[in-house]
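Many introductory courses stop at the sequence. We go one step further.
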Amino acid sequence: MRVVRVTAFGGPDVLRTQEAPDPVPGAGEVVVEVAAVDTMFVETQVRAGWGLEYFPVRPPYTLGGGIAGTVRAVGAGVDGGWTGRRVVASMGITGGAVQRAVASVEALTPVPDGLPLTTAAAVFQDGVTALALLDATAVAAGTRVLILGASGGMGTLLTQLAKAQGAYVAGVARGARKTALVRKLGADAVIDGTDSGWPGRAREALGAAGGPAGGPRGGAAGAEVVLDGVGGAMGAAALPLTADGGRFSAHGAPTGGFAAVTPQEAADRGIRLLTIADAQISEEVRVRLAARALAEAAAGRLRPVIGATYPLERAADAHRAIEGRDLVGKVLLTV
């Protein structure tokens, strides 16, 4: 079977499509015939050698995180009823960019009938993280939420899910095409992050009663919840936009580092800081949240934005597209 291997740390050219033996499921495992592979920005960073303190992998390793496909074989102790079922499974940071993948039966989430496997692949990993973040930051009806990177794979889902919960959403994205997408997804206010004055525009959008028409009502100015999927200087600039007593989640680092937020500054204002560690969840919770995300997608209430798809043999092109930042939404590999 074909697999995509990371042969060394470096640029996209280190990715190679190679042949490997067909896998055999062990006890408690299944073999999934893969149809689509979710491809996230963090995978490009790990391939380049970043984040080893969070993702301790070393080349050579098999690329790929989340998969969507059909169970073709089961191992000892696995109910034969899984055979032929369409499923998604998280492989972590490695092992998914293959024709046939081995996964623990405990990691499987059934895909609802009628939901395309490409859609399932695009929604489930970021959907799981998005739901976990919204739960952890207690987003509810009327919550003022600021989303950085709102046009990205997870940002687009966060925008939709927060709006579905009745929150007031201000989304930050870069450029006319991306801001138009965030507006189309239902954000109440959209701020162009390429404008050096974006923090002031965000503060205005998040103002208290008496602010701009259509703005949030009541309460102190600022975002009660900041969801920072960008990191770096932009993430740091968002901390002052957080309302006293609010929640700030620094979970993204596509800029090359997480937001340099001073814990003491947050503590002085009663702001609860969440990091990437707070987004780590158990397999049981992951499966439960994946089922929620897929059900929302099947009902048409959650629409992932798929920017491009590439075959396994063009995994390097997929990584170039992600790193080029011109695309909006998700990039998938198809098998």
